[in-house]
Design goal:
heterodimer; A: alpha+beta; B: 5-stranded antiparallel beta sheet; 5-stranded antiparallel beta sheet
């Protein structure tokens, strides 16, 4: 895993975020705020970004690459660019429900627990999309999402 | 910039301390070499505004007439008989000649050289005639005068000389003795504070490795500041008294910052993170708070620059330098030491119980009104004596009672007509000294002013009537275009309100008149300093509000912080007046109150104490805000914030108070005031304000604490200062770097 300064090419990050469904309703100003606080990581294939049973301390958004979601050793979903994970353990504190492993070298945007909550409170467009997404997942799976 | 810098420090820290060692190995000896001789480059003066009318009048006199009011006084007591006995007079005249031979001496007045009428009282002889005063004018700036005072002390006093016992006093001698005394006291304060602080650090940090960290930071900060002051002193006047602040703040802030960082590191370790991750998390949270706090404290120190007096400006230079260097040293060096020795520094013991300060916060928050009103009332009452503050300037009584300059001044007060030695110097550049009618007409206007009993002029000296020329009347004459000047002697003490009123009346006689002398200098200094106080307060308040907004994103919390900080200073300011002006506890503290309060000390203390107060406020608010952002629960956040930082703040405050009390053992009254006042300020702040008023008011304001208009909230999100909460992502089994093109 490599950390990349979120100072470098912030305008590039804003452009990347603009194409992500999660930020579809956000204004450019909203995206600049998200870009300021999101840390971007490049993650090597094979990295377990979150591990089932660990405490949740961050929210992740896959900007490129691929990852698999496994619960109790079984793959339950595959994630691609624009997919996000880690929010459930922050919204309702509980151990991670699944392990997410990068399968194709990925770029990931990460928000720590604190900034995730602050941004949800301060950016209604983000929280509305997040809520809609959670509702869709609940409807599709009949249960909690792929964590 | 800041986030990138913080990340860099966090990464560097984990290189097992090699960089730390390199920085220390290179910088400390360099600082020691450059800054080691700082004392010789600093000034013992800087107490007056060089642009004040009285300073310009004195400069005019020196420049055109080669004299001015005496600023160095020798009191010669005849071992036998009176000073006018033949042998004593001969010895006295020889003494005058030796004094005149000193290059810095511009002018000497002595009882043996006054050619007075037979029936006139000799103002330079004591009431009993056994003592003589030599009124000496040392030329040049305050440092040149100091050199002259050193030469005179070496040549003629104090001690026995040719049938006289001699003591020295006067402004130049008082400055000289105060600076020497302050230097000795500083060494003693350091010798007292160092072992006590070390013991305190061992208790607080629970282990010698952690305990030596703040001492290392302190040495780095103090030597770094000495170096900065050495460089600054090449371009402007820097007061030697700034060194006292450097040592106290350097040690105090090093303790504050190190304690905050080490505590956070131990907390992170207790949370299950390894040393490297803990160091990184510490830098990104507490490290950021330290840098932010240092910026806030430095800003309040910067306000001292608005005062046109080198003494106060020197404290701004020293304060800003020591705060920034201590902050930078703490954030760079401490993490590197933690990375190197972190395994042995341990982690916070988790007892399972809520910390004492969290329970205290909850206790307060159960009855917020009671605590708010009760503690605020105590602080307001403690501050009431300050309503009667009477600002003035120091005189000989700043020194201990047995100091030479103090003893000499007491002799002047008791055995002489003291007022004779503090004339009001009146310069009249437009009056031609050859025009005796014009001179006498002006003398008549002067001598008829209230409280004037004597005027000396080029045409002679006057009581209620002219008494004719004396041998020194010619000193009031210079070149044809230089005008003339007068010495106006009042019945009133130079620091009395009546003397100030007289100066004002003299200035009102003619717009061209220039007035110097002790009373005018003190009045001008007090006036200019007091007139700039609103500007200084405004700068401190506005910058604090802005900086705290950047940290909290709220407009309510910063306002409360400023009000609380002011409230925390009330007790200190009340105590200053009650003790040092009114003289309560004077015997116990071994001081000689003058009935006035040195105008500089409260200003200085305000800036230092406000800065330290804000330092603690930043520690506390940063933690409360972090908890609140995560939990959205005001009461729990306040309890956790105080629980996490209460120990740090109180321990730091107690250790800092020890340093200030050590400084208060000084025998120089202004240094003692500084030490006593600041010790009280930090203790009141840590124990009364942070532990009671802050949680009570946070509880009362509830969610409104964090209110700001929406545009400001968004501005804060975009540009504010945030403590990031680092994310620990497990590494890949075999990390493979991704080519940059793969991540457009």
């Amino acid at each position: 895993m490599t950390r990349r300064s979120n100072l470098v090419a912030r305008s590039d990050v804003v452009a990347r975020f603009a194409g992500v469904d999660l930020f579809a309703r956000c204004t450019k100003g909203d995206l600049r705020i998200v870009a300021r606080h999101a840390e971007r990581l490049t993650v090597a294939a094979g990295t377990e970004v979150v591990r089932q049973g660990d405490a949740g301390d961050a929210f992740f958004l896959l900007l490129s690459g691929k990852a698999t979601v496994a619960r109790d050793g079984l793959d339950v979903a595959e994630l691609g660019p624009g997919d996000f994970f880690g929010e459930l353990a922050l919204l309702d504190p509980a151990p991670r429900a699944a392990t997410v492993t990068v399968t194709v070298p990925a770029e990931v945007a990460v928000l720590g627990a604190r900034m995730f909550k602050v941004l949800l409170r301060e950016l209604p467009a983000l929280s509305a999309t997040m809520l809609a997404s959670l509702a869709r997942r609940a409807r599709d799976a009949g249960a909690v999402g792929h964590e | 910039m800041l986030p990138a810098m913080i990340s860099w420090v966090a990464r560097m820290a984990n290189r097992r301390g090699r960089v730390a060692a390199a920085i220390v190995v290179l910088a400390v000896p360099l600082f020691a070499v450059v800054g080691g001789g700082v004392r010789d480059r600093l000034s013992v003066g800087g107490f007056v505004d060089p642009d004040a009318p009285s300073s310009q009048a004195a400069a005019w006199l020196e420049d055109r007439f080669g004299t001015a009011a005496p600023n160095y006084v020798l009191i010669a007591t005849a071992q036998e008989g009176t000073v006018f006995d033949e042998a004593n007079e001969r010895a006295g005249l020889a003494l005058v000649e030796r004094v005149r031979a000193v290059p810095a001496v511009l002018d000497v007045l002595a009882p043996w050289t006054l050619d007075l009428p037979e029936d006139a009282r000799n103002p330079l002889a004591s009431k009993r005639g056994d003592r003589a005063v030599l009124g000496i004018r040392l030329g040049g700036d305050e440092d040149r005068q100091r050199e002259g005072a050193d030469e005179l002390a070496h040549l003629v006093g104090p001690g026995a000389h040719d049938g006289f016992d001699i003591v020295a006093t006067g402004p130049a001698e008082i400055s000289r003795e105060a600076a020497d005394q302050a230097e000795d006291d500083l060494l003693r304060a350091e010798l007292i504070a160092a072992p006590l602080t070390l013991v305190g650090l061992l208790l607080v940090f629970r282990g010698w490795r952690a305990a030596v960290i703040p001492l290392g930071v302190a040495v780095f900060a103090v030597l770094g500041t000495f170096t900065a002051l050495t460089i600054i002193a090449t371009t402007t006047t820097v007061s030697v008294f700034a060194l006292n602040l450097t040592t106290a703040l350097g040690l105090g802030l090093a303790i504050d910052y190190s304690l905050l960082l080490v505590s956070r590191f131990r907390e992170e370790r207790a949370g299950g993170h390894d040393v490297d991750a803990s160091v990184r998390r510490t830098v990104q949270t507490a490290g950021r708070t330290v840098l932010f706090s240092a910026a806030t404290v430095a800003t309040s120190m910067l306000a001292l620059l608005v005062f046109p007096v080198a003494y106060l400006r020197s404290f701004a230079f020293a304060g800003v330098a020591v705060v920034l260097i201590a902050g930078a040293a703490a954030v760079v060096v401490v993490p590197m030491l933690l990375a190197r020795f972190g395994e042995r520094i341990g982690h916070e013991a988790t007892s399972g119980h809520e910390p004492f300060w969290a329970r205290q916060a909850r206790r307060v928050m159960r009855h917020p009104w009671l605590w708010t009103l009760g503690v605020a009332a105590v602080l307001v009452v403690a501050g009431l004596p300050f309503r009667n503050v009477d600002p003035g300037r120091i005189d000989d009584r700043v020194l201990p009672a047995d100091a030479g300059a103090h003893v000499g001044a007491e002799l002047l007060r008791k055995d002489f007509y003291f007022v004779d030695f503090n004339p009001i110097t009146v310069v009249a550049p437009w009056i031609d000294p050859a025009d005796t009618a014009a001179v006498d007409a002006f003398v008549t206007r002067l001598v008829t002013l209230p409280d004037v009993y004597r005027v000396d002029a080029v045409t002679g000296f006057f009581l209620s009537v002219p008494l004719g020329p004396t041998s020194y009347s010619e000193r009031y004459r210079a070149g044809p275009d230089d005008g003339t000047w007068f010495d106006v002697t009042s019945w009133r003490e130079p620091d009395s309100q009546e003397a100030s009123d007289l100066v004002a009346k003299i200035r009102a006689l003619d717009p061209r008149v220039r007035v110097a002398g002790t009373t005018a200098i003190v009045d001008d200094t007090v006036d200019v300093v007091v007139s700039r106080i609103p500007l200084a307060l405004g700068i401190v308040a506005v910058t604090t509000l802005v900086l705290l907004f950047f940290m909290t994103g709220s407009v309510v919390v910063p306002l409360k912080a400023v009000v609380l900080n002011l409230l925390s200073l009330t007790a200190t300011f009340g105590a200053l007046v009650w003790v040092f002006q009114d003289g309560h506890l004077a015997g116990w503290l071994d001081i000689t109150p003058t009935g006035r309060l040195d105008v500089f000390t409260p200003i200085l203390m305000f800036c230092v104490a406000f800065g330290l107060s804000m330092d603690y406020e930043v520690f506390l608010l940063a933690r409360i805000k972090e908890c609140y952002d995560l939990s959205d629960d005001n009461v729990a956040s306040v309890a956790e914030g105080l629980g996490r930082t209460g120990r740090v703040v109180t321990a730091a405050a107690v250790l800092l108070a020890v340093v200030f009390v050590a400084i208060a053992t000084s025998e120089v009254m202004i240094v003692k005031m500084f030490g006593v006042g600041l010790a009280l300020a930090v203790l009141v702040d840590a124990f009364l304000v942070r532990a009671t008023l802050v949680p009570a008011l946070m509880r009362l304001a509830g969610r409104a604490n964090w209110w700001a208009p929406r545009p400001l909230r968004r501005f804060h999100l975009r540009w504010g200062v945030w403590e990031t909460d680092p994310v620990d992502v497990p590494s890949a089994p075999a990390p493979v770097p991704i080519p940059q093109e793969a991540t457009p």
